[in-house]
Design goal:
224 residues, alpha/beta, 46% helix, Rossmann fold, five-stranded parallel sheet
Length: 224
């Protein structure tokens, strides 16, 4: 897809759990010439590299704890301060709380980056259908869908041959609990950035592939 001629911009992706933010974010690199950054990847990189923060994160996760906002903020600030982010980045998985959002707003101001928000709207019943059909690779993290994106061999990862698993949080009861938590915690954050960002786009994520949805978002932005 054609690149969008916007520089010094931080693209923030919001949407309910299971709406495809991560995959759409990767496809958005096709129209923004800036890197895609996943906070999940940042956490895994620090754990694998054995950094001080990575060791703290690993200890928390192994004991079932949540990574505190301050620690996540530090990890994100370290990543977005690297040279490849000088002209901006696409960020998904962060911020998740209003405190994180305010911290990010400060980071962007320091770096002279303008937030551009893409809010994916997806019917919650569609999300439940998608996630209950999702299967994940415990080794490389690849994600499949038994209906829309099945592996070449049933139950086996295409990348490393590991057996695919149904995550415990992909059952309907847990999914609906996550959606309720999203509404309580993240929707106020969306409203915060709706007021803060001069560029805010609501994009229909109900139908189409991640590429289609990313192109839909790019079309909204080009239309201005």
């Amino acid at each position: 897809m054609p690149k969008i001629g916007i520089r010094t911009v931080a693209v923030l992706l919001f949407g309910p759990p299971g709406c495809g933010k991560g995959t759409v974010g990767k496809h958005l690199t096709g129209c923004f010439d800036i890197p895609h950054i996943s906070t999940g990847d940042i956490l895994r990189e620090n754990v694998q590299a054995g950094t001080e923060l990575g060791r703290q994160v690993q200890s928390l996760m192994e004991n079932g704890g949540l990574v505190p906002d301050g620690m996540v903020n530090r990890l994100v600030q370290d990543r977005i301060s690297r040279d490849d982010c000088v002209d901006g980045f696409i960020l998904d998985g962060y911020p998740r709380t209003l405190e994180q959002g305010k911290a990010l707003a400060g980071m962007l101001e320091e770096q002279g980056l303008e937030p551009l928000v893409i809010h994916l709207k997806v019917d919650y019943n569609k999300i439940v259908s998608r996630l209950t059909a999702r299967r994940s690779c415990p080794q490389c993290g690849a994600v499949y869908n038994v209906i829309s994106k099945p592996p070449k061999t049933d139950g086996v990862c295409d990348e490393d041959g590991a057996g695919l698993i149904l995550r415990g949080d992909d059952c309907e009861t847990v999914i609906r609990q996550r959606i309720e938590a999203y509404e309580a915690q993240t929707l106020p954050l969306v409203e915060y950035f709706r007021q803060l960002a001069s560029k805010f786009y609501t994009v229909d994520g109900n139908d189409g592939s991640p590429t289609d949805i990313a192109e839909r978002a790019c079309h909204h932005i080009r239309a201005e």
